[in-house]
Structure formats: C-alpha cells, structure tokens
Design goal:
Number of strands: 14
Distance between the termini: 101 Å
Radius of gyration: 28 Å
Number of domains: 1
Helix content: under 10%
Shape: elongated
Largest sheet: 12 strands, mixed
Strand content: over 45%
Number of helices: 1
CATH architecture: Beta Barrel
Structural class: mainly beta
Length: about 270
Amino acid sequence: MKKILILGSILSTLALMGCTYSDTRPRINKVSVSAPDAPEVHGLNANGAPHSAMFRINGKIGFSKQKDVNVKSDGDYGLWYEMGGVNVAGKLDALYKINHFLLGGGLGIDDGIYYHFTSGWNFSRFELGTFLGIYNPLYHVQYSGEKCTATEKAKNSILGLFSVSEERCTSHAPLEEDKYEFGFNPFLGVFAGTFIDKFFVNYSLSFYTSYLEIESKSLDMPLVISHYFNLGYRFNKKFDFSIGTVLTKADSKKSEWVYGINAGISYFLL
C-alpha cells in the first residue's frame, strides 16, 4: 500500500511538471491611424461621341472637420481613425467610348497614390459604371502601450491527456511610436451621372479595405466608405468646374459620419 502511495505521488508530480518560458514582448493599448476618404472616380460627365477617346486632368481641394473616431474598443486594444481635414487631390483619367461602352483607367494623388480600371456605359443623358483599383495611402500611425516581460508556464500530463498554460506579463517600460508608412489597399465602387446641355450631376460610391501590421500584430481595420455628390458646369471643350460634398464613414457600429465640401476644375487634353 505504501509503495502504491509513493508511486501515485511521483506520477502526480510528473503530470503537473512543465516548462517555464520568459521573453520581452509589446502590449498595445491604443492605436491611431489616419483614414483618408476613399478615392473618387466618375465617367465622362457628358455625352461622348462613339469611338472617341478622352484624356482629362483634374484638380480638387476639399475640407471637412477633423475627427478622431473610435472604431474599435473591444479586445486587446482601442483603434481610432483620424478623419477629415484639408485635402488637395489631382488625377489623370483616360477613357475610350465604344458605341455606348466606356473603358479606361486613371492615376491619382489623394493622401497617397491610387490607380484603377474603369468600365461603364455612356448614353445621351446619363452614364453609369464601376471601378476597381489599388490605393496606397500615406498613413500617419501612432500607438502606445508597454513593453513587458511575459512569463508563460506550461504544464502537461505525461499521458498527454491535458495541458495548462499560465501567462503573466510584467510591465517594465512604456512603448510609444509615431511614424508614417504607405499602405497597399484594394478599392472599388460605382458611379452614376446625368447631364443636360452644359450642366452635369454625378455620384460616386467608393470604399477600400485596410491592412496594417504593428509590432508583428495585424490590426482588425474596418472598411472606409465614401459617398461623393457633385454639381458641375462645362465651360467649353477644354474646361469644366464642379462643387460638391463627400460623406465618409468607417464600417463600424462605433463610427460616425464625417462631412466635407470640395471644389474642382478639369482640363481636357482630348
């Protein structure tokens, strides 16, 4: 009986015996990232002649109230989007009309660089289409937290029936970072417009996904969605002018709308 008790005690000790690991790792508490409006794309804003090409240079300036919008506060960290502010943008479009079908693309600068493919339909009084591209915004990234010594103790049964992991993180230094970096984000959307004589009205819905990694940790970043509404006037074959508004929101229950106004002028090379 005594031997059985001794053997049981030894087996119990071995079953709970494990390894202890220690290393230094970051613990992020708050992240703030600039979130510019999604790129704006539209069509000809006029009834194009069949089998004709259009090359357009556009410049725009916009303003919206700056806001730090909390889009995520559950889990390990809080995420804020820096939205709004003064915005200056420029773009080159190339479109070709085959009967009523539009085909082309564009290259633009808008808080970063973007390029896209465009397709759609252009009729005598209206047009509509879709676009798909890549947006490389210049992110302003700020985050804070702490560096801690993480101690993890793993206990395993010798029979492999169960395992227990205990982790403790002891803070020993603050962690703060303020930097700029380019993103690589797919974006897409749709556009529609109508035109009568020299006046035109257009609408564009655009959104992009975001990917960002901090301290080897991928962030869960909501979509950024922008709605553009513009009213414009075509002075002649070379110039048009437009004014409008933009409404932008992150795809998060915690987010809120950010409203802005803009004005732009276009010069047509062809």
